[in-house]
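As the next step, I selected for study a record pairing a protein sequence with its backbone structure tokens, which the following lines show:
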Amino acid sequence: MRLSNYSSRLIGNILFIFSLILLVNSLVHAEQNKAITMMVGADGPVGCELLGTVTGSSKEGEVQEANVPYTERLMKARNNLRDEALKLGGDTVHIIRSNNTGKYEIPGGDKEIIHIGNVYRCK
């Protein structure tokens, strides 16, 4: 069975468009999964460009339920800090302050976790 010239071009164009979509999709995922180095301590990284200060909170984005486990709140604050660093184009965050009052279950107490850090471009 032989395909007509029109059918061959149509199949070729469809394959080209499909390949292009896959390429764009992989580039988007690569940018979203970009690694951020997080560090703590007295001194920030040496030889890096300071881009600004960012804050990550466990309450950002949605209403926080009262029964969210501590580890999930901790990861959410960290992920929000990382996302803010990516928005500035950084690859390193030096955490300069953490408010970790959410670790202990105090009735009526605020369980929010906040990380504040300086964002650097080091690579």
